[in-house]
């Protein structure tokens, strides 16, 4: 899920930084040892074979520097892993691994700033699961949590990787930011996701169930704030709920009909 990918990327970066740190420590120790050996070989009392003396000195320095560099790199790796885990926990929803509300809002504001520079389009979609309170009452919250994680996984697989942002807005409600898509294009994406959710069989232990979702889609424009786009998407979601559920309602389509 989203958090797993963040931790994977963070772990890869931590490994790279650890090896880099090890290399710097080792290179510094070897450089100092080599300079010392050269100075002693040139000005000090040394054995007859100066090259052999320098080689032995460098070998000793390597034997000393290597474990020191390894310990320093290991410590740096642990610090980076710990900091990366804390960052992921602070920016993701603990159940689904998706972006939490605050992190999603931050990315959405960054997208608006990018749109102001590039004059591109984007869309926002809100969706939630139909009759989910009744689902929890009937099947239990453990099954409900399993459904939320499955919905997160399905949604993540249907979206365009780094181009779309998926977050858990709260409860059974999710939010999607789709870059460079008009509302009509975003509606098609949400319709595909809606059908995928409708066909998915949810399982927990020895029980199975089906769920559906309703979607509201609205444009995200550079000349207005995120709050206005979310409010419009929420109005479209309300329309979907009140006209039969398990459907996608697009703001621009409603306006063109009106």
**Rg to the nearest angstrom?**
28 Å
Could you give the count of β-strands?
7
* Number of helical regions: 8
Summing up helix and strand content along with how strands pair, one would put the structural category as alpha+beta
Largest sheet geometry: 5 strands, mixed
- Mean model confidence by pLDDT: 82
Distance between the termini: 40 Å
Low-confidence stretches: 2-8, 85-89
What is the spatial order of strands in the main beta sheet? 2-3-1-6-7
Order of helices and strands, N to C? HHHEHHEEHEEEHEH
Residue share in β-strands? 15-25%
Tell the overall outline. Answer: elongated
Q: Determine the fraction of residues in helical runs and give it as a percent range.
A: 55-70%
Q: List the quaternary state of the chains.
A: single chain
3D architecture notes:
Helix 7 (226-242) links the parallel strand 6 and strand 7 (248-250). The protein is an alpha+beta fold. 28% of the residues are buried. The strands form two sheets. Strands 2-3-1-6-7 form a five-stranded mixed β-sheet, sandwiched between helices. A two-stranded antiparallel ribbon has the order 4-5. It has eight helices and seven strands; from the N terminus they run H-H-H-E-H-H-E-E-H-E-E-E-H-E-H.
Ordered list of secondary-structure elements with their pairings:
Layout: H1 2-43, H2 50-91, H3 101-118, E1 122-129, H4 132-139, H5 141-158, E2 164-170, E3 173-179, H6 183-199, E4 201-204, E5 207-210, E6 213-220, H7 226-242, E7 248-250, H8 251-257
Parallel strand pairs: 6-7
Antiparallel strand pairs: 1-3, 1-6, 2-3, 4-5
Helix pairs in contact: 1-2, 4-5, 5-6
């Amino acid at each position: 899920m989203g958090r797993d990918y963040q931790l994977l990327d963070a772990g890869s970066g931590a490994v790279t930084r650890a090896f880099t740190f090890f290399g710097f420590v080792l290179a510094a120790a070897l450089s100092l040892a080599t300079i010392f050996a050269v100075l002693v070989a040139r000005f000090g009392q040394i054995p007859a074979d100066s090259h052999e003396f320098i080689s032995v000195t460098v070998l000793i320095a390597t034997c000393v520097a290597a474990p020191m560099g390894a310990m320093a790199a290991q410590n740096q790796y642990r610090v980076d892993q710990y900091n990366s885990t804390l960052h992921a926990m602070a920016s993701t929803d603990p159940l689904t691994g998706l972006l939490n509300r605050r992190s999603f809002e931050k990315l959405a504001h960054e997208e608006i700033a990018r749109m102001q520079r590039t004059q591109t389009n984007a869309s926002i979609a809100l969706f939630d699961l139909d009759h989910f309170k009744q689902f929890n009452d009937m099947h239990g919250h453990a099954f409900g949590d399993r459904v939320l994680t499955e919905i997160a996984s399905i949604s993540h697989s249907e979206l365009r990787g780094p181009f779309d942002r998926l977050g858990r807005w709260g409860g059974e409600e999710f939010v999607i930011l789709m870059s460079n898509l008009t509302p009509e294009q975003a509606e098609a994406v949400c319709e595909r996701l809606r059908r995928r959710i409708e066909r998915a069989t949810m399982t927990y232990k020895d029980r199975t169930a089906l769920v559906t979702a309703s979607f509201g889609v609205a444009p995200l424009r550079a000349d207005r704030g995120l709050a206005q786009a979310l409010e419009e998407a929420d109005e479209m979601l309300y329309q979907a709920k009140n006209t039969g559920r398990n459907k996608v309602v697009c703001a621009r389509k409603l306006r063109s009909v009106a």
